[in-house]
Amino acid sequence: MTGPDLTRLTAAELAERLRAGETSSVDATRAHLDRIEAVDGDVRAFLHVDADGALAAAAAVDERRAAGEALGPLAGVPVAVKDNIATLGLPTTAGSRILEGWVPPYDATVVEKLRAGDLVVLGKTNLDEFAMGSSTEHSAFGATRNPWDLERIPGGSGGGSAAAVAAFEAPLALGTDTGGSIRQPASVTGTVGVKPTYGGVSRYGALALASSLDQIGPAARTVLDTALLHDVLGGHDPRDATSLPDPWPSFAEAARAGALDGAVDGLRIGVPRAIATGEGFESGVTERFTEALDALEARGATVTWIDTPHFAYAVAAYYLIMPAEASSNLARYDSVRYGLRSEVAGNPTVERVMSATRAAGFGDEAKRRILLGTYALSAGYYDAFYGSAQKVRTLVQRDFADAFAQVDVLAAPTSPSVAWKLGARVDDPTAVYVADLTTIPANLAGVPGISVPGGLADGLPVGIQFMAAARDDARLYTVGAALERALDEERGGPLWSRVPELKGGARA
Q1: Mean pLDDT throughout 401-406?
Q2: Has residue 352 been placed in a domain?
Q3: What is the rounded CA–CA span in Å between residue 348 and residue 354?
Q4: Where are the beta strands (DSSP E) in 139-284?
Q5: For residue 508, is pLDDT > 80?
Q6: Helix or strand run (H / E) with residue 492
Q7: Which EC number(s) are documented for this chain (predicted)?
Q8: In this structure, are residues 196 and 312 in contact, taking their beta carbons and an 8 Å threshold?
């Protein structure tokens, strides 16, 4: 008798089968590697696949399970890692030529936790260069495609992780979120993505873009799977100066609670006028958002419109703060210490080699943001630009504080639009920047956010975003799971089960 397709199981289902001895980690890992081989030539979610390492790790988990050892809740489950997170012995490029071929001598803390939790790392996923982008078209190694429509973007910067999950190449993935880079890809690929509270998951080993905004987080196809992975990742890390010492509740328990009757009875949902509707929001997105709110109201939640007057300035502030920090962080890629070094004829001074290396190693979008950030930090402009942006950031944080004094969570569409065609906005970066208006406020304030599939518009996924107060991540899993259950019941199954079947093709 033929067993179930292991790639179509949720991480929770796969973990249960592994615990029950109904399958092995080797079989699960091989199934996902076969799926990658079959379809990633079309999707291009992965930059590096570690088949031998993954199978060896899976075999070790199976041996330990057979020996009766206590293993983690996700032991033996495969996971993909965004390629701006350091992995011992595996290439880590951040999607940039300037780090092509670099193999870190250490694991990021989150990767250490994956290995300690007995998960199996399949490989590294594609991203916009140094996480600078919203489409995964700005990778030096080619664009990733959306499994729902291979002619469309999978979001960014973590489009590789989201596409891998949506295409059943991995049940779980890690991403980083600086201005929406986990949540927006989740939205346009019909998956779940979470930006934890700033400091809730260690950033040690993440290649920095903007240190006061970056946050590692989980991605999966269900709210429970995402919560299970978050439980593995969270906790204090003394190697990260911004890591919170707080103990964290079980996010998986919060997600399971959200699937119960009455989970959102009395929940107060606020809708920020500034980032929920208006110009630039596609009608299908607005319709799915309204339906999601109606579904939660029908289950006992109350919905209130909230004024957040400074959210309207969040995008402008972000696109000064983020490039300024990026300019500083990316200065380390100087041709001297590590990474690419270009040859210069004649008199190869440090300045000439550095200039040639950075010109050759960084792509156009990275250069654009480095230049903008350097300008914003320059003498005579610091107070007018960077300093003013930080003042706006404080006002955005106050808006959140005022809102959470009135409501339990805030809700908005994760993205104003569904996935656009590849190449459609490459020559209009401002249009891409403005599209981040719904996700950026959470990064500026350091609060957690989740994107949950809300349905389809014109056959493409729409994400619903919830945000909660700092350290209140568990509440997001409860409301996210409640919405997931409500919509799954209405549409007769999960949205991810409707991904069109890929024709497949050998990986290039």
Answers
A1: 98
A2: no
A3: 9
A4: 172-176, 192-195, 216-220, 268-272
A5: no
A6: none
A7: 6.3.5.7
A8: no
For residue 89, the tally of other CB atoms under 10 A from its CB is 11
Has residue 374 been placed in a domain?
A: no
Confidence of residue 434 (pLDDT cuts 50, 70, 90): confident
Q: Would residue 353 count as lying in a domain? A: no
- Report the number of distinct structural domains present in the chain: 1
Q: Quote the percentage of the chain above a pLDDT of 70.
A: 98
Which pLDDT score, from 0 to 100, does residue 504 have? 58
Q: Which two tokens stand for residue 480?
A: 């996210």
pLDDT at 277: 80
Q: Answer whether 229's CB lies under 8 Å from 220's CB.
A: yes
Q: Are 225 and 11 in contact (CB under 8 A)?
A: yes
375 CB-contact burial (10 Å; exposed 0-12 / middle 13-18 / buried 19+): middle
Mean pLDDT confidence for 416-434: 93
Residue whose entry in the numeric block shows the structure tokens 């080699």: 353
Phi, psi of 455 (to 5 degrees): 125, -165
Q: 183: helix, coil or strand?
A: helix
pLDDT tens digits, 138-197 = 999 999 999 999 999 999 999 999 999 999 999 999 999 999 999 999 999 999 999 999
Q: Are 87 and 124 in contact (CB under 8 A)?
A: yes
Q: Is the pLDDT of residue 505 over 50?
A: no
Give the phi and the psi of residue 369 in degrees, each rounded to 5: -75, -35
**Per-residue model confidence as pLDDT tens digits over 33-45:** 999 999 999 999 9
User: Would you please indicate which residues are annotated as catalytic (active-site) residues?
Assistant: 82, 157, 181
Residue (of 186, 172, 125) closest to 11 by Cα position? 172
Determine the residue type at 473: D
What's the domain range around 231?
A: 8-310+395-494
Please tell me the distance from the alpha carbon of residue 387 to that of residue 303, in angstroms, as a whole number: 36
Instruction: Tell me the C-alpha distance between 51 and 386, whole Å.
Output: 45
Spell out the residues 6+ positions from residue 187 whose beta carbon is closer than 8 angstroms to its own.
Answer: 155, 193, 413, 414, 415, 451, 461, 462, 463, 465
* Alpha helix (H) residue ranges in 241-299: 251-258, 273-276, 283-298
pLDDT tens per residue across span 309-348: 999 999 999 999 999 999 999 999 998 877 899 988 888 8
CATH no. for residue 204? 3.90.1300.10
Give 413's strand partners.
464
Q: Where do the DSSP E strands lie in 361-423?
A: 409-413
Classify the C-alpha dihedral 146-209-77-120 as positive or negative: positive
Look at residue 294 and tell me whether its pLDDT is greater than 70. Answer: yes
In a domain, 319, yes or no: no
Query: What DSSP letter does each residue of 83-135 carry, written as one string?
Result: TTB--TTS---TT-GGGTT---SS--HHHHHHHHTT-EEEEEE--SGGG--SS
396 or 505, which is more confident: 396
